[in-house]
């Protein structure tokens, strides 16, 4: 899928050139239980060629876990990820649409607890298909914005009607971190392709304090590091016009950096440009661990039918390996996935086919071999 070799921020495995990696497996809910085993199979297949071996630890999180234990994210899951794992694969979460006392999203909590400050979401079409030419990376700040989940509800005394407030938090430190990794990714693409742009997405014309700070710090980070990243073209785009332009002319964008909420919306929308959310991966990146996570949700309407698309998880597995410092096996995984999509013989229903999850996995494995 990708041709960019991403920054290896996690050093635990990379520094020692480890051949034995411990990977946490967190299926979560719905189709997460069907696609995470596919990622595990892909990793297991890498041993003969690359000499990599993996220890897998099954971990719990999600709505079903909350119903069974009263906790959506057990302390044991956090402890094992922090102290035993170099990487992890996270499936999907089926969160209720109305407030449930004591429940909050486990993936949001994981990002905070593990310092996973960046969510990197590459969106790329496959050469030889009918999809439009798309090759962009959305770098989403992962720890703040409205996702800090500081909300309150109350009755307005003057009108007697219900009111809900939510706090949007943007900090200089988090913004500088996300701007830096976005610039690093853009610089790599510049070295590879001879050109690269960074587009900072915001709504500072309305949110002059919060989004204004995000915009200012991104620009300051770029200006302060022009000796490193001066070859990267710096752009800014208001988020609503960004959505319009992304669908009208996606070829104009390369690396896009955005606050948490905008990044979430943009990357899910961008999936429509390449056929399905079922093919778009992501990596939650922090200083000590990387968690691969498909961009799709739990899809309860198809859960248990064996037709969920494993491609996003397989690509997320490759993305995790790239950040852990293993670009060569990741490259082979991407090639195998591209070949599967290009041939079109084994595709799940979201891509217009009638194949099962297992059939797609087996086809990718055969091409990987």
UniProtKB/TrEMBL annotation:
Cofactors, names only: Mg(2+)
Domain of life (superkingdom): Eukaryota
GO molecular function: homoisocitrate dehydrogenase activity; isocitrate dehydrogenase (NAD+) activity; magnesium ion binding; NAD binding
Enzyme kind, highest EC tier: oxidoreductase
GO CC annotation: mitochondrion
Catalyzed chemical reaction(s): (2R,3S)-homoisocitrate + NAD(+) = 2-oxoadipate + CO2 + NADH
InterPro entries: IsoCit/isopropylmalate_DH_CS, IsoPropMal-DH-like_dom
Record-linked SMART domains: Iso_dh
Enzyme Commission number(s) from the entry: 1.1.1.87
Pathway connected to this protein: Amino-acid biosynthesis; L-lysine biosynthesis via AAA pathway; L-alpha-aminoadipate from 2-oxoglutarate: step 4/5
Keywords: Amino-acid biosynthesis, Lysine biosynthesis, Magnesium, Metal-binding, NAD, Oxidoreductase, Phosphoprotein
Domain Isopropylmalate dehydrogenase-like residues, every copy: 22-364
Protein's name in the database: homoisocitrate dehydrogenase
Organism in which the protein naturally occurs: Kluyveromyces lactis (strain ATCC 8585 / CBS 2359 / DSM 70799 / NBRC 1267 / NRRL Y-1140 / WM37)
Taxonomy of the source species: Eukaryota, Fungi, Dikarya, Ascomycota, Saccharomycotina
């Amino acid at each position: 899928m990708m041709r960019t070799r991403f920054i290896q921020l996690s050093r635990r495995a990379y520094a020692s050139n480890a051949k034995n990696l411990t990977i946490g497996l967190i299926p979560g809910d719905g189709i997460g239980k069907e696609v995470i085993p596919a990622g595990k199979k892909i990793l297991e297949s890498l041993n003969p060629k690359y000499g990599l071996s993996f220890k897998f630890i099954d971990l719990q999180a999600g709505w079903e876990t909350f119903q069974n234990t009263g906790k959506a994210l057990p302390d044991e899951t956090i402890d094992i990820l922090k102290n035993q794992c170099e990487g992890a694969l996270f499936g999907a979460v089926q969160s209720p649409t109305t407030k449930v006392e004591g429940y909050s999203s486990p993936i949001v909590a994981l990002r905070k607890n593990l310092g996973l400050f960046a969510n990197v979401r590459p969106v790329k079409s496959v050469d030889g298909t009918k999809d439009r030419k798309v090759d962009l990376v959305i770098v989403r700040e992962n720890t703040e914005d409205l996702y800090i989940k500081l909300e309150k509800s109350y009755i307005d005394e003057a009108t007697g009607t219900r009111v809900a407030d939510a706090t949007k938090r943007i900090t200089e430190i988090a913004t500088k971190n996300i701007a830096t990794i976005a610039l690093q990714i853009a610089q790599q693409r510049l070295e590879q392709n001879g050109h690269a742009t960074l587009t900072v997405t915001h709504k500072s014309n309305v949110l002059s304090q919060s989004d204004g700070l995000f915009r200012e710090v991104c620009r300051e980070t770029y200006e302060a590091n022009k000796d490193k990243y001066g070859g990267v073209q710096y752009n800014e785009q208001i988020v609503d016009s960004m959505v319009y332009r992304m669908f009208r002319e996606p070829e104009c964008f390369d690396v896009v950096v955005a606050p948490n909420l905008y990044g979430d919306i943009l990357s899910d929308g961008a999936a429509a440009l390449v056929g399905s959310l079922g093919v778009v991966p992501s990596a939650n990146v922090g200083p000590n661990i990387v968690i691969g996570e498909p961009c799709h949700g739990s899809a309860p309407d198809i859960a248990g039918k064996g037709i969920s698309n494993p491609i996003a998880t397989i690509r997320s597995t490759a993305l995790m390996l790239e950040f852990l410092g293993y670009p060569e096996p990741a490259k082979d995984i991407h090639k195998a996935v591209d070949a599967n999509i290009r041939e079109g013989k084994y595709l799940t229903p979201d891509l217009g086919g009638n194949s099962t999850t297992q059939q797609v996995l087996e086809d990718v494995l055969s091409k990987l071999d």
